[in-house]
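Data availability (excerpt). The following record was deposited with the supplementary files.
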Amino acid sequence: MNGLLDWEVGILAEGREWTRQRLEERAQKQVNEWGAHCPQSGAPLKRGKRQRLKLMTCTGMIVLKTWRGYSLALGRWLNPARERWGLKPKQRLSPELQSRLGFTATVAGSYQKAAATAQRWGTLISDNTVHALVQQLGGQARQLALPEPAPAAPEPEFSLVLMMDGWMARQRGVDWGASRRKKKADRVNWKEVKSAVIYRLDQSVKKPSGRGMLIEKYVVVRAPDTQPVDFGAAVQAEARRRGLARARKGYVVIDGAVWLWNVAQDRFSQAIHVLDFHHASEHLWAIAHLLQGEGTDAARAWAEPLLHQLRARPGTKSGSFVSGAAAGRQRFERQHRRGSANPGRVLSNPSGAYPLSTRGQAGRSDRQWFSGVALQSTPGPLQAHRAILEPFRPRKPAPG
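Predicted structure:
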């Protein structure tokens, strides 16, 4: 037995009963002072008689001896106590209890939970009573005139930036903790975590050291194995909360992953889609190595001016060429997954990269030819770019 618990419960019950009796005495005293008189005119009621009024309060049931009669001034039968206290003709709940039950029903979310909560803090009530009360209060609320919304404060123009990416997280594999004797044990399982960072462009600043910093940003992260469709919906919802509809411009910064471009097109089709510089430079270096040779001075001399031009003026031809090559790589990877990317079938690319076909005719004046590229089981970045850029390599003209 817990003595403190028993004392607390008992004293609370005594306090509730003392409060109920005091409330009943005060209410009865006021009813006796009013007497059987019309609350509007003060004239005595005709054919007045006693009427017992039962009222459920927060501390329990109180029973009052009130009056009921006919008012000549109002032309109807009434109970002076009900009229003065603002009670409806058949109302059995006190105003404070109605307020508490209405709030509890709103927070709890169901009539059963509201009734159970009320019973927990000492009011024995049924869910049917809570339901009837909510319907009554809801009908009264519909008749209320809502205040005019205050005009929104003028907001300066801003641009919203959304950066989306997927990164690999290390998790335990099925053979985590296996001994070293086990061959080819799957101890580590790498999973892709999808995340996004949303910020306003004016929140991007630089530290004295020159390093960039975001004053305020919002992050969306989804667990591994989350579908891109669900991730895109979550990012779109957060972007709307952060003012996407009010932004002057919207920028979606992503890398060359196909699923990211699909999300950008599906959820942010009106925004400006940007291939981030890091991945754009990777594509450009891959192109340089394929055209000029791996690690050669010619590749560096070819790539560095374009990289400078790409960073200084992203809208130039170098940027269009890189984005087209990246888009072509995405198309190549999609067709490879479907089994259509092989030398015997057509591989078409978006604008920005020359068309690639089995006969290899590139849209150039010197009519160079493509001889076909042998594919491995899984295409890598260099292999994808090699297939896209093969028309740029010099070839001997076809005989005849």
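Summary of structural features: The beta strands are 46-57, 60-71, 76-78, 159-172, 188-200, 204-206, 212-214, 218-222, 249-254, 272-275.
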